[in-house]
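Task: sequence in, structure out. Protein: C-type cytochrome.
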Amino acid sequence: MKVHGMPGWSNPWFRKSVIWLIVLTVGAFLVGFVLLPSVHGDFSAKGLWASICRAAGVPSDWSFGAKPREAPTATDVVLDRAMGKEGSRQAIGRGATLALNCTMCHGAQGMSTSDAPNLAGQYPEVIIKQLMDYRGGKRSSPIMVALAANLSDADIADLAAYYASLPKARTAPTTYDEALPALVRVGAPLRNIAPCVSCHGGIDQKFGAPWLEGMPKGYLALQLKAFRSGERGNDSEAQMRNVARTMTDQEIEEVSVFYARKAGTPSE
Ligand code: HEC
Ligand code: HEC
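Result:
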């Protein structure tokens, strides 16, 4: 019997050699692209397709199913030193008027009596960045996303100027002259966690890192857990996600109690 278009297929030797060729090709492919790469020490199992791409030398950010470096919620706010400037008197005045919509939760003087964050004395660039992130849907909170949606850039700058101008009801910065939780003082070098004080003021402040002293404990713990799970991913370059990723519940509790206990007296 002769298969149409394939002369010689009826010849058993030809048939066998074709089949063997296929078997050897597939076998070599599996060994070279799947088996060998998979026994490499640094091989992280990401599935068959990923190991084939990897063995073939496809750059890892092309590989399918690989997670993008930044979560889709990554912030698009570029921090600018100008955001940290003190506001003019007009800006502060306008901000005070706009802030009447915020007192219900953030307190009449920006000191919250609930678990909403304090805003009094917060660095202006922090308030600007966070409001822009809510507005752009990069940080989730049904209340804040809805409120921020109606704010213009000018409104946001004025609100930040107002809150930053409030009497520093926030408590004194953390110094080395007191007993500090290890994570706050030295971080955890083995886990690549830098000390909190190296970014959050007191000893040194990284532009864009919020003032934490005196914040409600519940708020601090909630944010740390949200960074840990990746639910909050608006921190640029994953600065906080990298810190929180390996923190235990107990450590979160400890640092939250520490920063919250420094609360001043909330103003009425
Ligand atoms: C109904 C309560 C409520 C009102 C009203 C409200 N907020 Fe908030 N705000 C919250 C809560 C709760 C959070 C924390 C949400 C989260 O987990 O992200 C928050 C977070 C924020 C943050 C982030 C602070 C930080 O340290 O990261 C800013 C800034 C802010 N609010 C500003 C405002 C401004 C400005 C207004 C008025 C225009 C306002 N809020 C009105 C409840 C409120
Ligand atoms: C490498 C610098 C850096 C280190 C170290 C760091 N943080 Fe942060 N942290 C930031 C930045 C920047 C933000 C603001 C992220 C954003 O833009 O949303 C932040 C945000 C936070 C927030 C959210 C506050 C708010 O009002 O939204 C908490 C809580 C926090 N950090 C706690 C900690 C604690 C506790 C430690 C130590 C265990 C720590 N951070 C170490 C840089 C740092």
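Residues 133 and 139 are 5 Å apart (CA to CA).
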